[in-house]
Amino acid sequence: MKNKLLPLVLLGILLSTMSCKAQIAANSELGNDAFRTGSINAIRGMNTRRAAHTATLLGNGKVLVAGGFAGDKNSLASAEIFDPKTSTFSSAGNMSFTRAGHSATVLPDGKVLIAGGYNGNYLDSAEIYDTKTGKFTPTGKMTLHRSGHIAVLLANGKVLLAGGVGTGWTFLAETEVYDPASNTFTKTKNMSAARESHTATLLKDGNVLITGGHQGRRSSITIYASAEIYNPTNNTFTATANLTVKRHKHDATLLDDGTVLIVGGSDERDSRGAYTTAEIYNPKTKTFAKIGEMNLSRYKLQGTTVLLKNGKILIAGGADRAEIYNPATKSFEVAAGKFESARLFATATLLPNGQVLIVGGYDHNNAVSEQAWIYKS
Q1: Using CA atoms, how far apart are residues 202 and 4, in angstroms rounded to an integer?
Q2: Average pLDDT in the 122-138 region?
Q3: pLDDT for 204-216, tens place per residue?
Q4: What CATH architecture does domain 33-376 belong to?
Q5: Fewer Cβ atoms within 10 Å of its own Cβ: the N or the C terminal residue of the chain?
Q6: Pick from 301, 303, 326: which is nearest to 313 by CA?
Q7: What pLDDT does residue 16 have?
């Protein structure tokens, strides 16, 4: 009996081996270790070309994409909804104002605060998107006209808005806090420096880490290596250690262990000075430390770095390929698949199923896109 079974067992092993080899070969065709790094896949695009827009995950699992500009810096009032079940975009009506460079923040009640931006004028208006009614409704005015600012939902349910550019091309150190209970904005303390193209990250202790950015333009530009901590309990900004290199137009993401990954950006040369460098901020030691470099230089990638459900980081913007940061090995690997071109001022949004929606942005020729992609790990 054993002699009769042996050929069948060997045949089973052979077929299993051939199947494994075929699967490995298929995976290799997807790119650089696609089965470990995941891949970028194009889907049907948005209804409108957009860059410098916002993309916000709603409580129902859909994504609100709002505003931005479509070309020649013409700002948009239109919004649309992405449904991950059908992978399609549908109209969500119009905001009260055309806006680009605004902020969108999900409030504790699931509504979305949309604030500021630019449409030929710097805006001090804000509005609320209600997911239940699908309507945009004006709310209280900000204390300053601002665009290119950061907005962070604090642990107390309020929203910190900081920096950006205001009327007369003024760079802002001023900050304010929105209280959803009263629908009002209140001026708070100033940052240590006026900042645009900076980042703000809510830490696990409830404080906010603000890094880099710049003040001024062209030959008058000053790019910062400085960073500071906002404490909402006592409403203060306190200097922390400097970045390992001055950065603006970079991105920052909180990791599962409470540290912050900071990637890319550039120096005064803009695209010609885009970085491959990355660093980690440790809130316990209050220090920054350089880590291994990315495979591609990236800048203008704010809002396109996403913490995945497996603890790794997708870095989607600023180049024509995405890559994955692995905190366990402190290394970067390029994901399979490519965008149509470099994605500058695009957005990336983690979906409930663990995939990531990447939409819009423009390329190095300033061509704005309506294209959309899904990252699958």
Answers
A1: 66
A2: 97
A3: 999 999 999 999 9
A4: 6 Propeller (2.120)
A5: N
A6: 326
A7: 35
Give the integer Cα–Cα distance in Å for 25 and 27. Answer: 5
| pLDDT score at 73 | 65
| Separation of CA 264 from chain center | 13
**Sign of the alpha-carbon torsion through 164, 168, 174, 175:** negative
For residue 171, how far is the Cα from the chain centroid?
Answer: 22
Query: So where are the chain's domains?
Result: 33-376
Ramachandran quadrant class, 20 (left: phi over 0; alpha: psi -120 to 50; beta: rest): alpha
The two structure tokens encoding residue 304 = 């396109």
DSSP 39-96: EEEEE---SS--BS-EEEE-TTS-EEEE--B-STT-BEEEEEEEETTTTEEEEEEEEE
Tell me the torsion sign for CA atoms 107, 111, 114, 115.
negative
* Model pLDDT for residues 5-55, shown as the tens digit of each residue: 333 333 333 333 333 333 333 333 334 444 468 999 999 999 999 999 999
What residues are paired with 210 via a beta bridge?
A: 200, 228
